[in-house]
Amino acid sequence: MSADRGVAVVGAGSIGVGWAIVFARAGRSVTVNEPDPARLAAAPAELAARVGELAAAGLLYEPPDVVAARVAWHGELADAVRGAAHVQECAPEDLALKRALFAQLDELAAPGVPLASSSSTLTASSFAGELPGRARCLVAHPGNPPHLLPVVEVVPAPFTDPAVAASVTTLLSDAGMSPVAVRREIEGFVFNRLQGAVLREAYCLVRDGVASVDDIDRVVREGLGRRWAVVGPFETADLNTRGGIAVHARRLGPAYARMGAERGQDDPWTDALVEQVAGERRARLPLEDWDARVAWRDRALVTLERARRGLGGEIG
Q1: In degrees to the nearest 10, what's the CA dihedral of 244, 249, 255, 259?
Q2: pTM
Q3: Does residue 218 belong to any structural domain of this protein?
Q4: Are residue 169 and residue 244 in the same domain, yes or no?
């Protein structure tokens, strides 16, 4: 992918504006297409405000006007896509709309240019499977807002050229993102399946009179979410139990199984599955380094608490 060719962002909603910032602050020229005149008129000021906020927080390495000047705005799709080295689609989550839009993009974008969707749940197979250029189509699903959450799920379809997925992953990494390779297509990918699992249980807890909406939010905001900001669910379990995640599964697995059964779920943590998960954790963190990692986690939580109190500081 040529470094001097820009990125086209299709859609100037919150995701599209966030993507434009991601690529522009990485030094790329960006062309944004938005068919709604009102939205097209409002989006530049929104981008400028967000870039200004990043600069004020010390998170931008150039003047904000320099970054914003790399973004051009277009009402016509062909004008935005012309000459782009990568296309990032950010249209609403509507299957018919994405099918029609990807058919246009496949005609307009130069041969070989990756066509990536920011789809939250829809797979590339569902909207690009019949296209002549389907081998260059895939999903690159970000968190919202992309310029503040670096994770992005790279989800190729079975027909996606592996070289395209690799080039998109490199582009995203070079832009400061943290690409996650999703190994097979599944509705909702990883991000929204995890988010959905928590949200489904949260609704059930409200329905069953266990806790209020505000208190459930507080449990996540001041407990789970704060901890997950520095370690994910597997590492949390690994660090919460001396001996690691295999011991955690043995001690708490039956309780989690009963909780799942209450909701009609039957997905046991089999010995083979626990062994697989434990093996991946031990490859990343040998047990002899467990105490040091626990200490790091605690320092990270201290850093978050200092930030919450406005005291500053960094994770050691």
Answers
A1: 110
A2: 0.91
A3: no
A4: no
